[in-house]
Design brief:
homodimer, 311 residues, alpha/beta, Arc Repressor Mutant, subunit A, D-Maltodextrin-Binding Protein, domain 2, 3 domains, two-stranded antiparallel sheet, 11 helices, 45% helix, disordered C terminus, DNA-binding
Chain lengths: 311, 311
DNA sequence: TATATCGATAAGCAGAGCTGATGGTGAGCT
DNA sequence: AGCTCACCATCAGCTCTGCTTATCGATATA
């Protein structure tokens, strides 16, 4: 296999341009003998002469001309590649695959997308919304770069950083507004509407109500928080939703929202990624952005909803 | 300036394909540590990670994916370049710029072109027909690779190899056939038609007739041997032409051709090239081909013309 | 003939890059 | 839980590449 080096190609290109060993060597920041040797080496490995040396002139051979044209193409591509690396080095850019759980996605995504696009113009955001187990699987398999989920995950091999905590609030028919805030025990007496199996939020809600092993007929599963709230508005039952969903979901339904008394149920949303991910540093940066976006979203949400405080 | 080597690119490509340091190292015929170090080095010089290593798997990062695509393009171009060199190494190929003097070109070119094209399919023949001084100039300036001229040239810096020698023959009107063969002295009494100034053949003919300083009105200049022969046919005078031109030029004119008695005038046709030409080896090969082609042409010419022998 | 220019060559040295051995870590089996 | 295996990173040592300075040889110039 004929083999030459990029260095030789660069030296060659310089010599082809200057047609003078001394000058070309200066440009390459090496001594003239070094250039002579590398050119000789290159010609040797090619098995053909690139230059025709006479005492007074250095000329490209016909083969050298063609070689030079192609060599320049290659060097251009190589420089482009270096440029690509330089661009990708610090600034987050290129494809970034983020997974988000469904009980966060609708409320956080607009802000996340907006902020990330604004801060990292070269970013190609690739979003995936599904339940935690699938996110974890896709993350560990390398099909996602990071995911926004409820902590803790405690999956070995995955790093997790908290973003924010949010309380769960009770959503009940509008007519119930003003009634006393139910505690965990009285919740069990109500018809609780929950998300389908697989959603972590369902498990968290059940856990709060100590209803882990509730009889199925007491519950009714919805496929999204929006559905649940609409069902509550229709008087079918009550439900829990995370604080962040309040502004969006309770706007168009005759429901009332109330916080629980301490200890109020809550969850911590965080970001996770592989411990081995080379993007770790940039992902931490992304986490900061998401955290800020979430705070902003919650503030706006509270203002819009005139969120009632319950303690 | 970020800089990596082709070797690193090849190693990287192998690892990107196999996703396994050991296997990739085997393919590259190096040890696993060597591969690890080169990849690490590459990532270091790029300032970004190409692979994500975990204990059980080696995966390309997003950046690595893009890098791999471009790296493969570059490696392909490099291999193509090597291939180009290999093709150019032994077999003569690519552009070959040949100059030929006008008193040889019409008679030798068909055979030369045919033979060279047949023997070197990759050859791009670039022909130039002009007088010797211009050929020499273009040759020394690197605008020609070789030239076919009458020897000797005795130009320092140019190598010359003889191809063949050919006699000059006398062309006289058809009615003169059978008349005694004139010697050099009697030639001076005839009206001699010659090529314009600058043609070496003119000088050679004049030299033979010892007419170096002949009075202009005794001569008549033609721009080609064909013209001269037609003029002879019209009874305007006599001329000398090289043996090789006989078959072609005397076919369509009422002229007779006769050889001179010994010592017959003659010239040696040869090939010349720059001493510094890297094509020297291949040009010597071309010389062999041209020599053979010339011999063949002369044989065919003699047979066709029923060339009269005069000695 | 003397001088300047320019590429090739020589000698010596620093460092790149390879090998074989070893370390560390996570996965899977018992 | 502990053992073992697979796999990549690291280390020490050696070889050879590739650089430098100094010098040579050839050629054009004055």
């Amino acid at each position: 296999m004929v083999s030459f080096t990029l260095k030789q190609l660069r030296y060659f290109e310089a010599l082809a341009r200057h047609r003078h060993f001394g000058h070309a060597a200066d440009v390459c920041a090496i001594s003239q003998p070094a250039l002579s040797m590398q050119i000789k080496e290159l010609e040797g490995s090619l098995g053909a002469a690139l230059f025709e040396r006479s005492a007074r002139s250095v000329r490209l051979t016909g083969f050298g001309e063609e070689f030079a044209a192609r060599a320049r193409e290659i060097l251009r591509a190589v420089d482009e590649l270096s440029e690509l690396a330089r661009a990708a080095r610090d600034r987050l850019s290129g494809r970034l695959r983020i997974g988000i759980i469904p009980t966060v996605a609708p409320y956080l995504l607009p802000a996340i997308i907006g902020e990330l696009s604004r801060l990292f113009p070269g970013l190609d955001l690739n979003l995936r919304e599904t339940i935690t187990p699938r996110l974890i699987r896709e993350l560990t398999e390398g099909r996602l770069d990071t995911a926004v989920v409820a902590l803790p995950i405690s999956e070995r091999g995955l790093a997790e950083v908290p973003l924010f905590s949010e309380e769960f609030v009770l959503v009940r028919p509008h007519g119930d507004a003003g009634k006393p805030v139910p505690d965990r025990e009285s919740l069990r007496e109500m018809r609780l509407l929950l998300l389908e199996e697989g959603h972590c939020f369902r498990d968290q809600a059940l856990s709060f109500c100590d209803l882990r092993h509730a009889r199925p007929r007491e519950l009714l599963d919805g496929s999204s928080l929006a559905t649940l709230v609409q069902m509550v508005g229709a008087g079918i039952g009550v439900t829990l939703i995370p604080e962040m969903a309040v502004a969006v979901e309770t706007r168009s339904a005759p429901v009332s929202v109330v916080r629980f008394a301490d200890p109020a149920p809550q969850r911590t949303i965080g970001m996770i990624w592989r411990n081995t991910s080379p993007l770790a540093r940039q992902l931490a940066e992304v986490a900061d952005v998401v955290r800020a976006a979430a705070a902003k979203t919650r503030d706006v949400g509270k203002a819009q909803a005139g969120m009632p405080g319950a303690g």
